[in-house]
Amino acid sequence: MSIRVLIADDQTIVRTGLTMLLDAQPDIEVVGAAADGREAVRLALQLRPDVGLFDIRMPLMDGIEATRRLAGPDVDDPLPIVIITTFDLDEYVHGALKAGARGFLLKDAGPALLTQAIHAAADGDALIAPSVTVRLLAAFAQTETSPPRQPLEPLTAREEEVLVPLARGRTNNEIAGELFITPSTVKAHLASLMRKLAARNRVEVAMWAHETGRMRGRG
Description:
Layout: E1 3-8, H1 12-23, E2 28-34, H2 37-47, E3 51-54, H3 63-71, E4 81-85, H4 91-99, E5 103-106, H5 111-122, E6 127-128, H6 133-143, H7 157-167, H8 172-179, H9 183-197, H10 202-211
Parallel strand pairs: 1-2, 1-3, 3-4, 4-5, 5-6
C-alpha cells in the first residue's frame, strides 16, 4: 500500500517539486498540498494522510503550531510529521520537535533521505538529517531550563550503548553494524528506551540523551 502524504509549504515551486519527487516513488502518494499551516491542519483532518511533510515558516499558522495541533502531546491520534526546512539550527526547529515532529530535514536533503524520512515516519520511527543531528539536539538541550525526566526504570548497559549512536542520528542498521548486533535487536532496545523514557519516538530519546549530558565530549 502507498504511503499517503500531505505537503505544506508556502512556496508554489517547492510544493510542486516535492509533489513530483514523491509521486515518482512507487510506494508514496501525495494526497494534498497546503500553502499555509491553517490549511494543512484542515486538509490533515479531512484527508487523514499517513504522513505530513511541513515547512516551518508559513503564513496564517506556522509549521510548529500546525504540528502541535496534529501531533502534540494532547492529540489522541497524532499524525506523523516530518519538518523540511532551510533552517538547520534555530528555535523554530527546536519548537517543532518539541511539538511532536517525527523528523527534520533540510530542503537540500535529496530524494533518498526524503523518502527514507517519509518511510520512517510512517513506520512509527523518526529521522533527523545526520549532518545536523548532533548540533541541533545539543543546542536544543542548552535551551531547556527544566530538569530532564527520570527514566521509569534504570537503563541497561546495552541500552546506554544504543543511546549514543542513536543520538548522533544513526539509523537502526548503522547502529547494528557499529555494535555488532542485529537491526531487530536495536529496534527492541529502542522500544525499551521509549517505554522507560515515556518518549513518543527516537527524536525524543535522542533529545533526552543530550539533555542529560550523555553526549558531552562524544562529538
